[in-house]
Amino acid sequence: MKTTLIMSALALVLSAACVGFAQTPTRPCGPTATEIFHLRMECKELGKQFDKESEAQVIRRPEIARVHFYAAHYNPQANRCYVEGTTILREDGHDTSIISLLHDAQSDEPLPLASTMRSNDKDGTTTFEAGAGDGTSGNDHAAYLKAKAFIDEHMREK
User: Fold this and answer.
1) Is residue 123 over pLDDT 80?
2) What is the DSSP letter of 81?
3) CA distance 38 to 45
4) Whole-structure pTM value
5) Which of 78, 73, 115 shows the shortest CA–CA distance to 98?
6) What is the side-by-side strand order in the sheet with 114-120?
7) Which region holds residue 24: left if phi is over 0, alpha if psi is between -120 and 50, else beta?
8) Other residues' Cβ atoms within 10 Å of the Cβ of residue 68
9) Which is nearest to 106 in space by CA: 81, 79, 143, 86?
10) How far is Cα 87 from Cα 69, in angstroms, rounded to an integer?
11) Which of the two residues, 2 and 51, has the higher pLDDT score?
């Protein structure tokens, strides 16, 4: 009985936190459109900083052509800023690799939330490596697609 009463009181307090009191109009939980706009701008800046720091750690080799780009996305439902970095590597006369990494830009965690790599060897063989925070891991096409979907889900506008 006491547990039910405590849980009911807690539910009432939590529900009141997202709606105004009798004198103020109600408003849904979460940030307003203006707040989301500013959070997206902050996320963009976090993404630039994250990209700059990760690029500084790259060891460059002249025989490997390298193209890198990133995208930052503020997810209002999760209230997180995600950064996806994509790198394309091409070694002279050899294979091409496309690597995507998803990071939480607000975290100090150096490991990505998800990663995918697709390599095409000069003989036409395609290999995959993937891992994601949902437990996906493997070196087959199915794991690659699942990890890519995990990245896309975090980067998609909802």
Assistant:
1) no
2) E
3) 11
4) 0.72
5) 115
6) 64-75, 80-91, 96-104, 114-120, 126-132, 137-138
7) beta
8) 14
9) 81
10) 7
11) 51
